UniProtKB/TrEMBL annotation:
The enzyme's E.C. designation: 2.4.1.1
Sequence similarity: Belongs to the glycogen phosphorylase family.
Top-tier EC class: transferase
Ranges in a coiled coil: none
InterPro entries (alphabetical): Glycg_phsphrylas (IPR011833), Glyco_trans_35 (IPR000811), Pyridoxal_P_attach_site (IPR035090)
Described purpose of this protein according to its UniProt entry: Phosphorylase is an important allosteric enzyme in carbohydrate metabolism. Enzymes from different sources differ in their regulatory mechanisms and in their natural substrates. However, all known phosphorylases share catalytic and structural properties.
Signal peptide, first to last residue: none
Protein name from the UniProt record: Alpha-1,4 glucan phosphorylase
Amino acid sequence: MGAKVPEPRQNDPDTLARQIVEKMTYSICKHPEQARKYDWLRAVTLVVRDRIIDRWFASTDRIRQSKDKRVYYLSMEFLIGRLLRDAINNLQLTGAIREALKRYNVELDMVELLEPDAALGNGGLGRLAACFMESMASTGVPGVGYGIRYVHGFFRQEIAEGAQVELPETWLVHGNPWEFERRDSTYEIGFGGKVLTQQEPGKPPRHVWRPAERVLAVAYDTPIVGWRGEQVNTLRLWSAQAVDPILLDAFNSGDHIGALVESNKAEAITRVLYPADSHQAGQELRLRQEYFFSAASLQDIIRRHLGENDSLDNLADKVAIQLNDTHPAVSVAELMRLLVDVHGYEWGKAWEITRATFGYTNHTLLPEALEHWPINLFERLLPRQMQIIYQINADVIREASQKGFDGSQISAISLIDEGHGRRVRMGQLAFVGSHAVNGVSALHTELMKETVFRNLHDLYRDRIQNKTNGVTPRRWLMESNPGLTGLLTEAIGPGFLDDVEKLRDADPLAGDAGFRDRFAAVKRANKARLADVISDRLAITLDPDAIFDIQVKRIHEYKRQFLNIIEAIALYNQIRAHPEKDWTPRVKIFAGKAAPSYVQAKEIIHLANDVARVINSDPSVRDLLKVVFIPNYNVSLAEIIMPAADLSEQISTAGLEASGTGNMKFALNGALTIGTLDGANVEMLEHVGEDNIFIFGLKADEVAQRRRETHSGRSIIERTPLLREAVNAISTGVFCPESPARYHTLVSSLYNNDWWMICADFEAYWETQRHLDELFLRQDEWQAKAIRNTARMGWFSSDRSIREYATDIWHAGPGKRA
Ligand code: 26W
């Protein structure tokens, strides 16, 4: 029976003000006069939440009654950030709540900033999942996100004497008003034990897994509000709990600590997010996390399906499951186990259902980031799933040999890597278990076909397709840049709020001097806002009229923050050597976290801070150059940074950045891009046009070629004075006189193999930067290009990405009603 849809609540400031005070009184138990700022946050959140709940019920009912196909997005990470502003914006309550709070002398912006970030992700992959959740709700796709409710999200970064220090993150300490615990959606998850095989004559053997350990998965639901509140979807995160919270026998015999061992072990599964996005951790706990959330999600999906359907025969008609990288890939084996062992399906039929249900998105080609698990660990933890993987593998290998694949091709296809102490290859498992496999930009998808999945692509020619990433324009334009949103609304009308591709209407305004001035004024205000944040946090004063040249993202060698720092040093040297020249004032801003175990990445952070200290305190620079490293980069900081950039650094070694999404956020907010032909930069070039983006350096095939030729940086350093002087300055301790050998390893990597092509690309990068210096002095031209970037970035909305997934992979969503 459908719940009655409640009367819409009044959204005028009077009603909102009254309700906020009501919450303050009866839910928080404070008199408004005694209320502290966190009480206001809570009261406003509760008022907004009530409105969301009404719509959430309505959406859930509508989807259930329509019997439409549902989409389940399985992801180890959801980097959602704050939710209040997103909810208020999408419900279009911003003005009314601001007004309501003013009556109590409270600023909405202040209140919004008190909310902790939900940092349940590392970087690109997790943030993409968050944009996709918002876009599914906004485009009317009935989507549920499944993930892990980490008690500690991504670590907090501090910089102490220039170096990264990791501190635990504790987003849940003050409670989380956005989540609802669902005790009635609790499942048992098994680990270890053995597999019993029952053989009846004339029948295939039956397998029963008897796990040695059991853990409970408890659901926590968070509403995800779509644009204009028309649909509210669910993000369901799993939390681990012990089946027996206290071992009574142990407790009664006086072993009070021992009585808690089991619950500690169980709860450890969802305690902390692994902070590495480039190296496989390879730890047992990580595999436990992966299986835990996959198995819980599948049980939940099947239970819901069987509540509405007679059998699992039509699972793939009603359910699409997207695997966000290989982290949930064990789901392929688990669904096979559920279908065959638990629901009695014949193997071939089960495989057909499984493949038709899953889709797999690949987000990286870096060999060190591809997941593979030692067979003995896998077998010990998941014995039945291991048997199933062997059987899937046998089928795949048989098919390949029948099609004439040779030994080396078959060993590349195999789900088992025989080379490195026998391992399960999760990429191969996800690939063969899915009907569609996608890359996240056009270039990345082509490289997938040529590299990691070359042989599987030969075997299954139609399986790989491209789905270029996108970002949600609600968070990354409307909410983070209200100034620009207001200006655009005045200039081209509000149509772009519903269809961001209508930003195109602003394109001709690049030729309108008045509009250029207003566009520049918005940018300047955003730069001043960022300068204030930097002044508060770091006591560094910035000139908002300098070029704000920004690189914010995870710190990784392939992303080449090191190249950017070397260029800063070369510029520093030139400014001092040629004080007579007309240098364009520039501020180089960095932010990002390094994986705690990634030594080189941490050295790069240290170097950025060392260089900043020396340059910023050198009077001979006369403020023509400043270098800033902002600690603790996260979603909320990104919301302040993206609108404040003149220049966006997207300078990865070509062929290595799968897509990038920061590149899109910057350009949407009117930054010009300096970048390589990598990831989605390639498509950004096609959309904004070559006059409006600044591409330099080796292309992906040239990088691959040079690597085959054992290219070295030494000869380039020796013949390039600018580079040589900069590198010498680092290696002689100019930036760290207290410890001159600090960057020895970093520098020798340049001389030896220059694996990341920093030396190879230095000159092209330097020249492009100097060209940009000149361009910035011609503000009319610069602003015209910036406007064209904003106007032409509409295609990079995650609404477009989601519509493509819905049409080509999921066969679900509006227009695809079953
Ligand atoms: C197993 C350790 C591990 C953890 C996370 C390996 C790899 C990952 C992620 C796949 C890394 C990641 O976030 N990749 C990024 O995904 C973004 C969204 O598609 C892309 O825009 C980035 O280019 C890509 O680096």
